[in-house]
UniProtKB/TrEMBL annotation:
<keyword id="KW-1133">Transmembrane helix</keyword>
<feature type="transmembrane region" description="Helical">
    <location>
        <begin position="12"/>
        <end position="39"/>
    </location>
</feature>
<keyword id="KW-1003">Cell membrane</keyword>
<feature type="transmembrane region" description="Helical">
    <location>
        <begin position="191"/>
        <end position="213"/>
    </location>
</feature>
<keyword id="KW-0813">Transport</keyword>
<dbReference type="InterPro" id="IPR000515">
    <property type="entry name" value="MetI-like"/>
</dbReference>
<protein>
    <submittedName>
        <fullName>ABC transporter permease</fullName>
    </submittedName>
</protein>
<feature type="transmembrane region" description="Helical">
    <location>
        <begin position="102"/>
        <end position="124"/>
    </location>
</feature>
<dbReference type="Pfam" id="PF00528">
    <property type="entry name" value="BPD_transp_1"/>
</dbReference>
<feature type="domain" description="ABC transmembrane type-1">
    <location>
        <begin position="68"/>
        <end position="270"/>
    </location>
</feature>
<keyword id="KW-0812">Transmembrane</keyword>
<feature type="transmembrane region" description="Helical">
    <location>
        <begin position="144"/>
        <end position="170"/>
    </location>
</feature>
<feature type="transmembrane region" description="Helical">
    <location>
        <begin position="67"/>
        <end position="90"/>
    </location>
</feature>
<keyword id="KW-0472">Membrane</keyword>
<dbReference type="InterPro" id="IPR035906">
    <property type="entry name" value="MetI-like_sf"/>
</dbReference>
<comment type="similarity">
    <text>Belongs to the binding-protein-dependent transport system permease family. CysTW subfamily.</text>
</comment>
<feature type="transmembrane region" description="Helical">
    <location>
        <begin position="247"/>
        <end position="267"/>
    </location>
</feature>
Length: 275
């Protein structure tokens, strides 16, 4: 066997399982979703294999546009709050000694060691009427089953996805750049605005993408902490597939979410190139 064939065989052995995994669990489901979008819903649910473009025109219905706007609002608020909290956190972690840096990073990812649904249900205990927050403050605020509770749950769930890429971007910065800026008379704020922030924009873009996308399509948090009172794209897709059994329109909604993801990936790639 020639060396070239040996390298090809080695590449196939190592890459083959991953390629099969992606093909079976990613490409095939995507192909099914794409194909379902041009068929009709049966009288009792399921799919009737008759070509139609009705599912795409239904996306422009004001009812569904309102649902999309609510999802965009929740995802945007979550992303903004995650950035405001995550950037200072990542910056402080990057400035810690190596031992404390490791401890801080473990603390950031520690919530991921617990089941996601359990973590969300824990917030119902904190935010409910007789919950820990109201009991501690001696108040009776309506903290649960509203959009504020949903943003809180999404922020808690996805904040680590903002901190980690920001930490990676800040950690790679050359400290001599900040020192040179200070030596030239720049204030700490000017150094941050003119040196640190521009050089960490790729990390900002990645963190925003990692937070916005799962927040946009999440259906667990709106269902548990929102009480199902605010329909989102995630809950709508779940309803179309599991309750209404309108698989073609559910697939169209899922395809729209995928297209949003592709647009965000293009924007993130552009920001990275600029950075």
């Amino acid at each position: 066997m020639s060396p070239a064939w040996g390298r090809r065989l080695g590449a196939f052995v190592f890459l083959g399982p991953g390629v099969v995994y992606l093909a079976v669990l990613l490409l095939v489901p995507l192909a099914l979703i794409l194909s379902y979008t041009v068929f009709r819903r049966g009288r009792f649910g399921g799919i009737v294999y008759e070509f139609t473009t009705e599912n795409f025109s239904r996306l422009l219905d004001p009812l569904y546009l309102d649902v999309v706007l609510v999802s965009v609002k929740l995802a945007t608020l979550t992303t903004v709050f995650a950035l405001l909290l995550g950037y200072p956190t990542a910056y402080l972690i990057a400035r810690l000694p190596r031992t404390w840096k490791t401890i801080a990073l473990v603390a950031i990812v520690l919530p991921f060691w617990t089941n996601f649904i359990i973590r969300v249900y824990a917030w119902t205990i904190l935010l409910s009427g007789p919950g820990l927050i109201n009991s501690t403050l001696g108040t009776q605020f309506e903290l649960l089953y509203n959009q504020g509770a949903m943003v809180t749950g999404l922020l808690y769930s996805y904040l680590p996805l903002m901190v980690l890429p920001l930490y990676a971007a800040i950690e790679k910065l050359d400290p001599q750049l900040r020192e040179a800026s200070a030596n030239l008379g720049a204030s700490a704020f000017t150094t941050f605005r003119r040196v640190t922030l521009p050089l960490t924009l790729p990390g900002v873009a990645t963190g925003c993408l990692f937070v916005f996308v799962p927040s946009f399509g999440n259906f667990v948090v709106p269902e548990i902490l929102g009480g199902g009172r605010s329909a989102t794209v995630g809950t709508l897709i779940r309803t179309e597939f599991l309750k209404s059994r309108d698989w073609p329109f559910g697939s169209t909604l899922a395809l729209a979410v995928i297209l949003v993801l592709i647009v965000l990936l293009v924007i993130q790639s552009w920001v990275n190139r600029r950075g």
